């Protein structure tokens, strides 16, 4: 963490102790209880629960990917099977000496992680969709099982592998090993999910486009999570191979991957503990009932799945949430970080050298020309308003200025650097911030969490804790205080009004401390007083701090009050570029607006 790291590390120590000590205490109690459990369980229950706890580790990985990050995956079974097979093949070939056991563990983690990296890259390349990623995860287990079948003696083909050396444990030892791994993985996932970095997963699930326009790379995060959790699945495969002494193709198959998804859904995705308890409970019940009621058990499980999805979309964990909701707890604002002002960046000196240059820009969708031959130069300290009737191409121009992957003709440069081919997060790194026409925020997060993510590209995010202070530039604090958001830091964004969401998004963009800010109707949905506030903030950003601003706005009175220049677009062409008085009094502008088209 950079810049204000010392403040973030030492702030709110009481809150940090509470948030970290509670899960550690619960994990320690769970581990102690599971350590003594084999002494009171019969061998059948011990065996089955050992397997169930290993499966629970996989459920945690599925929940992080699906419940938190929003990527529905069926591929964790494939990584689990690969880890089990890698360990079994090496131990079968070289024996169970300590050095080979350590090598088997390393291989069981490394091979699935390497495949996870490849799968993650295929699933989350630029412009891929969540559906595409799910399809890839469907294919991976099928391909892996076919490779196992074609492996001959190496993989045991359809018969699997048996007879390889395993860890020198009794049945109770494997139970305790599985319990320790399950508790450790669940605790690590719990701490990470509650940390500031963990909230980034939810942000990607809610709005990956906004993440990119905050300077974060959602694709990288998705690939990293896929890779790391593939390695964790491989670790579970290593434990399974040793505990069972048998690995078979179905351990890597699509059916098992689907069962994992069902168990997570039934337990309550996005809760971690729900999937863990749900997986253990369902697998244990299945082992007890499938022998006596083999077909009826599957029917009961399927009916329960459908009922839970319809009646309890949050899974069985939703029942616990409703029960605990009646208990007293700290208010949201009590746990929100404290606002502090950041030291201001050096003011950009007004210069004749353009900060943003557009040369010969043209944009088409098929045969439809949306922009044509746009030339524009914007200097530090200028507030340039972009006006024109509906369908003039204003929002399309804003998109081209903030996303270098848009196919265009012509050239766009930021401080002399061309943006062609650059994804939005890399353009943000050049100093460009964008506010969308419709407020683009993170509905599942709090106001404070949204603003922490806005600073993440510069300050970083903790992997294990929550920041006690929220350090923002003064301009962002002004927007928040003038619109009342500073009193709503712990409030969920989904509870905000439309105008408050608009103000929050503007605060997030200003928090980036950009050199150029692109604003698409920033005052839409705000009251007259709030519009005046936003106008004051924008004038401060440009005139006092030297930031360049491009503003799309339909309120001509608002434009007249704050603009240093006005640019008029009509039918995709720049028809006028001049001072406020020149444009407002132009007969051409009056003619355009009287005969303007529609989007």
The average pLDDT is 87
Q: How many structural domains in the coordinates?
A: 2
CA(first)-CA(last) distance = 45 Å
Which value, in Å, is the CA radius of gyration? 28 Å
Describe the structure.
By secondary structure, this protein is an alpha/beta fold. It folds into 2 domains: 42-324, ABC transporter involved in vitamin B12 uptake, BtuC, CATH 1.10.3470; 356-442 and 483-594, P-loop containing nucleotide triphosphate hydrolases (Rossmann fold, 3-Layer(aba) Sandwich), CATH 3.40.50.300. The chain is 56% helix and 12% strand. The strands form 4 sheets. Strands 9-11-12-6-13-14 form a 6-stranded mixed beta sheet, sandwiched between helices. The chain has a 4-stranded antiparallel beta sheet with strand order 5-4-7-8, with helices on one face. Strand 7 and strand 8 (417-418) form a beta hairpin. The chain starts with a helix and ends in a 5-residue tail after the last helix. Mean pLDDT is 87; it is low at 1-19.
Top keywords for this entry?
single chain, 599 residues, alpha/beta, ABC transporter involved in vitamin B12 uptake, BtuC, Rossmann fold, 2 domains, 6-stranded mixed β-sheet, 4-stranded antiparallel β-sheet, 56% helix, disordered N terminus, cell membrane, transport
In short:
The protein is built from 24 helices and 14 strands.
């Amino acid at each position: 963490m950079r810049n204000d790291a010392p403040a973030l590390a030492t702030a709110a120590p009481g809150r940090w102790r509470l948030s970290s000590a509670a899960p550690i205490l619960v994990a320690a109690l769970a581990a102690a209880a599971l350590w003594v459990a084999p002494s009171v369980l019969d061998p059948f229950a011990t065996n089955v629960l050992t397997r169930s706890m290993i499966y629970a580790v996989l459920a945690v990985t599925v929940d992080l990917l699906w419940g938190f990050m929003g990527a529905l995956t069926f591929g964790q079974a494939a990584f689990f099977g690969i880890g089990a097979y890698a360990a079994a093949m090496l131990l079968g070939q070289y024996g169970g000496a300590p050095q080979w056991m350590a090598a088997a563990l390393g291989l069981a983690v490394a091979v699935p992680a390497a495949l996870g990296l490849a799968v993650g890259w295929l699933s989350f390349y630029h412009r891929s969709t969540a559906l595409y990623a799910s399809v890839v995860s469907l294919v991976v287990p099928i391909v892996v099982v076919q490779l196992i079948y074609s492996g001959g003696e190496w993989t045991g083909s359809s018969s699997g592998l048996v007879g390889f050396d395993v860890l020198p444990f009794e049945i109770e030892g494997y139970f305790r090993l599985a319990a320790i791994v399950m508790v450790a993985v669940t605790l690590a996932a719990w701490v990470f999910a509650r940390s500031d970095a963990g909230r980034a997963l939810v942000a990607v699930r809610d709005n990956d486009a906004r993440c990119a326009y905050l300077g974060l790379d959602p694709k990288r995060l998705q690939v990293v999570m896929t890779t790391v959790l593939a390695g964790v699945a491989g670790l579970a495969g290593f434990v399974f191979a040793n505990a069972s002494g048998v690995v078979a193709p179905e351990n890597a198959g699509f059916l098992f991957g689907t069962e994992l998804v069902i168990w997570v859904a039934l337990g309550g995705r996005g809760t971690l503990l729900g999937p863990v308890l749900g997986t253990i409970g369902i697998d244990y019940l299945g082992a007890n009932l499938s022998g006596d009621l083999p077909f009826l058990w599957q029917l009961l499980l399927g009916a329960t799945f459908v009922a839970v999805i319809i009646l309890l979309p949050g899974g069985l964990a939703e029942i616990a949430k409703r029960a605990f909701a009646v208990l007293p707890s700290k208010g949201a604002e009590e746990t929100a970080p404290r606002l502090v002002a950041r030291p201001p960046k050096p003011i950009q000196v007004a210069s004749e050298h353009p900060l943003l240059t557009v040369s010969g820009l043209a944009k088409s969708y098929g045969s439809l020309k949306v922009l044509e031959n746009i030339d524009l130069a914007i200097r530090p300290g200028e507030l340039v308003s972009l006006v024109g009737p509906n369908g003039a191409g204003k929002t399309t121009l804003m998109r081209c200025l903030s996303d270098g992957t848009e196919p265009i003709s012509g050239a766009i440069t930021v401080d002399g650097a061309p943006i062609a081919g650059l994804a939005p997060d890399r353009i943000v790194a050049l100093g460009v911030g964008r506010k969308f026409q419709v407020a683009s925020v993170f509905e599942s997060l709090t106001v404070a969490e949204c603003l922490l993510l806005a600073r993440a590209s510069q300050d970083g995010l903790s992997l294990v804790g929550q920041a006690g202070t929220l350090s923002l530039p003064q301009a962002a604090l002004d927007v928040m205080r003038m619109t009342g958001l500073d009193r709503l830091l712990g409030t969920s964004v989904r509870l905000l009004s439309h105008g408050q969401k608009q103000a929050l998004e503007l605060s997030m963009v200003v928090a980036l401390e950009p050199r150029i800010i692109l604003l698409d109707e920033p005052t839409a949905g705000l009251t007259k007083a709030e519009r005046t506030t936003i106008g004051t903030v924008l004038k401060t950003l440009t005139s006092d701090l030297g930031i360049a601003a491009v503003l799309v706005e339909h309120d001509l009175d608002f434009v007249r009050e704050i603009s240093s220049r006005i640019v008029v677009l009509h039918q995709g062409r720049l028809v006028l570029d001049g001072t406020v008085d020149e444009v407002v009094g132009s007969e051409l502008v009056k003619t355009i607006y009287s005969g303007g088209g529609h989007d």
